[in-house]
Input
Amino acid sequence: AVNPNDPSSIITQVLSSSQSTTSFHIKIEVSGTIKAAALKSAAGSAGSALTSDLKLDGTAIEGDVDVANQAAHLSLAVAPMAMFGNVPITGDLILKDSALYYKVSLLGPQYTKTDLGSLTSLSPVAVPTPGASALAGVADQIAQIRQQLDAAGVKATLVGVEPIGGKDAYHISLSVPIDKLNAEIASAAASAAPGASAAPGMKIDSASVDIWTYKDTYQLAKIQIAGASSSLGNLGITITVTNYGAPVTVTAPAATEIKSATP
Output
């Protein structure tokens, strides 16, 4: 049973509910500015041409995902960037029948096809099979995720109930242990090989993670992640999930829309 006054209990139920998801609509919005100095450091010798900050406002990915049939159709929109000629960038991605089709406006109007083989190996968690043993496996995965959060020093606080898309949702705030995070960044920078992407002296000044989960189903409704760094810049990511279980139709591009394979 879920304790609606205990954020840890709610999070556990959210993780459990995700295992039975068959389809959903997702929208990912990105905002913020990455400083040119940080981009140069990450790019190494290839970053000499990077002279301006990277502004991410207006970047978004949105579409439908059919979990049951391992299919998806997502669209991409990127705000104009100086490094790409200050023109908007659009893209399209289709996952269907163990094949990935993608196109980007900068590269032309046709899709590129990539065969992926079995998609089971690409799943971030094991796909359970029917039976009691499968339920035990799901429970083990949830326990492992919770242990990792606890080990990282993450604490959950129930803020209250707020509307998301016209439905009530629990709002949970997760504390981010900045000192521990910066210690790990410093350790990675110290052990990085010369010329690697780890930027010496980089640290995170602030970070926040907020989660909303639908009150009636305990399914994920929204995640907001925000961070700021005097050396890196600032970044905001909002993920909104709706239309759980709604019918999804994903169609592969016609043959005339796909680039011919290179001999």
User: Anything to note?
Assistant: The first strand starts at residue 23 and ends at 34. DSSP finds four helices and twelve strands in the chain. The CA atoms of residues 36 and 53 lie 4 Å apart.
